[in-house]
Amino acid sequence: MRVAIRWILLAAIIVMAGATWLFLRGPSFWQRGYYPLHYQSEIATSATRHRVNPYLVAAIINAESSWKPETTSSAGAVGLMQILPSTAEDLARWRVVDGEKFPLERLSDPAVNIEYGTAYVRYLVGRYHEIETVLAAYNAGLRHADEWAAKGGNIRTAIEYPETKHYVLRVSRGKDRYQSLYPGAFER
Question: Does residue 64 carry a catalytic annotation?
Answer without folding.
Answer: yes
